[in-house]
Design goal:
Structural class: alpha+beta
Radius of gyration: 16 Å
Number of helices: 2
Shape: globular
Strand content: 5-15%
Oligomer: single chain
Order of helices and strands: EHEH
């Protein structure tokens, strides 16, 4: 796509560690920091095509560290649920939120976005 050719971008990337969409997917990175880096790199490209006065809407929810220690799921679970979730437990204690929206907002805010605003332009 040509530079600065998009006026509005709306997206909802897969939430960290909650789905298994196969090889080359987002959301199954080994650590939350790897997930953040993948999204940052993706949105750096989105920024290239976003018009100077364009807007970017990112829908991203938080996730819990519970059951993220590699516990294998049984066959009765939803087939889209990962068999083994990323081992984010190393980073945050079980049953605590990982703070993914805030982890994403920090690198995005470094790129021309005033801190403290609820909506962030693409990184």
């Amino acid at each position: 796509m040509p530079d600065r050719s998009v006026d509005c971008l709306v997206t909802s990337p897969p939430y960290y560690g909650l789905r298994d969409d196969g090889p080359g997917q987002y959301s199954q990175e080994p650590t939350p920091d790897d997930y953040v880096e993948n999204l940052r790199a993706t949105f750096a490209e989105a920024r290239r095509v976003l018009a100077n006065d364009g807007t970017c809407w990112l829908n991203l929810s938080d996730v819990y560290a519970a059951n993220s220690d590699g516990y294998a799921r049984g066959d009765s679970y939803n087939q889209r649920q990962p068999v083994v979730r990323p081992r984010s437990r190393r980073v945050v204690s079980p049953k605590n939120l990982l703070g993914m929206p805030w982890r994403i907002a920090r690198p995005f805010a470094r790129h021309r976005q005033p801190p403290g605003r609820p909506c962030h332009r693409c990184g």
